[in-house]
Amino acid sequence: MKLRHLDDWNESRRRVAGWYDDVLDGVDVPVTAEWADPVHHLFVVRSPARDELREALDAQGIQTGIHYPTPLHLQPALAPLLDHEPGAFPAAERRAREQLSLPMYPELAREQVAQVAAAIAASVPASSAR
Predict the structure, then answer these.
(1) pLDDT tens-digit profile of 3-12?
(2) Domains and CATH numbers, the chain
(3) Residue 33 exposure: Cα atoms within 13 Å on the Cβ side
(4) Which residue among 10, 44, 76, 94 is least crowded, i.e. fewest CB within 10 A of its CB?
């Protein structure tokens, strides 16, 4: 029953991601290659002040998520196989510390995206984005 709605939901997610792209400031947003047509199951931004930002958004009733908080080379199941110590992949470790998933679902309204963006702008100085 739900499969017939998939194309519309995916297009809605792309639209929501576009709204985020248009209004977000103070965080790094995902970059999409020209040839790509992503679904945006998640909308993950980056901020060196991720934890503070998450707390500020939570205080305003905006739920966020942290997906993949541990890079692969430090995952308990893979660490013995890969044999890499913390610090071996600093970019991956930094991304894991900085990533924050913003609200993302097909029914998200433009006004809600604007509310999230305003909360981020009030919480993180624009200079903290790379």
Answers:
(1) 999 999 999 9
(2) 3-128 (3.90.1150.10)
(3) 2
(4) 76
